[in-house]
Model the fold of this input.
Amino acid sequence: MLADRPPFEDLYRDFLGRIYAYVRAQVSTAADAEDITAQVFMNAYQAYGRFEARNTTPAAWLFRIARNATLDHFRAHGRRERLRRTIEHQPQGVEDPAGMAEERIQYRALLVHVARLPERQRDAITLRHSGLSFEEVGTLMACSEDAAKMLYHRALKALRESVHAEEMQ
Amino acid sequence: MSDNEDLELQALQRQLDDAFETTRPRSGFEDELWSRMQARRPLSRRVAEFFGALFGTLREVPSVPAAAVAVVLISVIGIGLIALSGVHLGGGAASTTAGSAPLKSEAGSSQYIASFGRLPTPTLSQPVPAPTNPTQASNNAADQSSQQVLYLGPATLVWAGPQPNVPITSAPVYRFREPTEADAGQFATALGASNSNHRAGTLGEFSGAGFVVGVVGSSKQPLAEPRFYITPNLSQSPPPGTTPTDTAAAFLSAHSLVPTWHYVVVTDQIADTTRVLYLRQFDASSNGFAYVINTYGVRYGIEVDVRRGQPLQAFGPLPLTLDVASYPVISTDQAISFALASKQSAAASIQPLPTVQLTTFELVYALVNAGDHSFYEPAYLLSGTFTNNGTTYVKRVLVPAVDPSQRSS
Done:
């Protein structure tokens, strides 16, 4: 039988993209997303020796670290500043073609709406679409699986309203 | 909830799925961050890992006498290799378009070298895929066992394939020196890019008319040679190509990036993106051309991602000037003996020890880094599959082809 705990490099390769996407959906610049993602994996690398596979899934463990790192980032920059940057943020302009491809811009605008959601709704959307089960989302958000489902569906409706509101403008 | 509302929410969920699946860090970030993490390890851990790897490597050395064929590097053969290998600017057999000129790694141009001295030994690395997710063993179409989990742990090995037909006694070894920032600038200038934007972890990133190109140096973990990436401005994309392969070829050609080396084109579908791969081959002298494999034993080369008829990004080995030298190689019988006697030291292991029938035998080229320069060395890749608890694994064993007397480890 394979060892319970896979080599850290396996986790790194498997989850780097998902963690980055999770963070990127919440912050306004790719540079911030890279910084936070780097911090997540630095922290995870340091703590991997204490990771117990029987207590949690690697995904839930890594996303918990990512969630904390993202919240720390917001605390450090202040909510007002974050909102200002999010609202002002536009999809990467044509002067930055690398950024355009990197972001796959057709979805960037949608993620800007996600970033504007209230914190718990944003958490529910980003964690769920990062591939976590509702049970894992609930665990991370300190609520039941059913509560996570309800929160997610409320968030989805709020997101739809946000998108509609912009389309009407 | 009305049906319309329900459908709207489902559509929104699909868009979110796509948005999260396609939001990924820029090329090079993965390697760059991994290098930073490795550099930050405590000294004690690095020392422990160094000796662990050293002893692991020693255990893997086949227990056969190191004395072997004396090295006779015949200049005539070497000169012949130069003519045959396309080491200079010669286009590959599959290439019909002039590609970008390789960078000159030194003041002079590529040349035949009598010998590079003793060579470092190519090895395979720990499997990347998560053990519990077989579909992630490889997402590369070049990997014929794409739905299998790569397993490098210990196993009882048996050769069950046909007698290999690789009738060579020597093979070329290729060497390049690590490019500098000036080399990266030269490469970008040749593509019509300038205005360097300093980006951490790269040798330079440059803007051209409707594209950005960047150069990344070698990395040791995972092992990779210097690479370029090029990203087009999607707002200035040409009309969609008829096929992803056509689109990729047109994109590379427009930027003078069609490989100058031999290649075989294959495609791989990843969600709604088609990855067109130009799998690199090296001239193996009288044995034709051999694929280059990465540290996991998978063929690779230039990758061009195409979606909806438009190129999204290309990524591949930087064109570099290669020096070449001829080295004696072991026989196929010796290679099989070495493979069966080798001890794999991978951390992940299956108990009880699986018995694996190795059935395929292939001459390949593998990258080996040696500080400020690296080699592409010939090697024999033996592989077979086995099943454990319902999961199919692929077992690969890499045997260096260069005679042990010419290797430093």
Remarks:
- Chain B is about 20% helix and 30% strand.
- Residues 115-172+325-406 of chain B form one domain.
- Chain B touches chain A through 52 residues (CB under 8 Å).
- Helices of chain B lie at 3-22, 29-39, 43-60, 75-85, 181-190, 244-254, 332-341.
